[in-house]
Amino acid sequence: MITTTGLTKVYRSRGREVTALDGVDLHVREGEVYGVVGRSGAGKSTLIRCVNLLERPSSGTVTVDGRDLTALTGRGPGILPGGSRAGAALRQARSHIGMVFQHFNLLSSRTVQDNVELPLEILGVSGRERSRKALELLDLVGLADKAKAYPAQLSGGQKQRVGIARALAGDPKVLLSDEATSALDPETTRSILQLLRDLNRQLGLTVLLITHEMDVIKSVCDSAALMKGGRIVESGTVSDILATPGSELADELFPVGGEASGPDRTVVDLTFHGEAATQPVISQLSRTYNIDISILGAAMDTVGGRQVGRMRIELPGRFEENVVPIGFLREHGLQVDVAGPEAAVELAKEGAK
Ligand code: ADP
Ligand code: MG
Asked: Which residue's alpha carbon is at the smallest distance from atom 14 of ligand 1?
């Protein structure tokens, strides 16, 4: 649904150049919720603004729903679909992409309903149809009773619901969200994420969202990417990421912690999906080889409706002495990553091949 190839954005201001995007290849499949994470300044906002051409890329292409937006003429920036001086073709294409902002960007002088109607006004939809559509959307986001209220009378969560209703006005296939929950408390965050997930399911909406919260990725995303210095350094479905040895994103999603208790110890991270029974495998291992195993840390969570767990355990003896027990764990279907001294990790990778 969304593809970028070699997307690059260089900002030039006062003689200085900042490369905000450095050759980003992004692939978001139709109907998925795709999360982009990364530190402040990584280029996340620039990426999302380039996807709907609020920002014109310096090079590379952006294709949304089969249309190459970079080939369409027009100039940004503009806040709402068609709010800029963009050419008609670009304006048209953009109206099928909804955008939700961290600070809601509602017009304080307009009622809730009039805020939702705004993009429809710009698209030239008639008054009656606008009103019908706006009320339908407010109902969809659970705010049917607030149509005549003004933004100042709403809570943060309600404002964001208005922002989402407005983003849906043009019947988009794609919803872009830049830190939509960052200004909200945890409980409101959960309800807004649930709403995005429901819209994704009900309307088949493809959602590309930016966040700096790992919990957001865990609770709603099918796929995720980690950005650093204008590049995507890791990406994939959340389950694939968790199954990738040495994945930084997996460690951030499921920090298991725990240090080796001594030099002659081997620390091993286990990842398992679904109902894989880790505990019995570990006690079998302990009995079979007559070794004491310590659990240093564990984390369990639900990702995209599936249970995923990680556990860090410690085996007595150096890695070389634990080749057989590690093989036993792998044979029993667990993903095994050896943590600790680099030489051991390298050896373990060789062993995994
Ligand atoms: P993020 O959303 O991940 O925090 P941004 O995309 O906002 O990152 O910014 C990426 C980099 O581009 C930063 O170094 C930022 O300072 C720079 N940048 C963003 N917008 C502009 C701009 N309009 N002019 C100049 N530099 C910018
Ligand atoms: Mg940002």
From this structure: 41
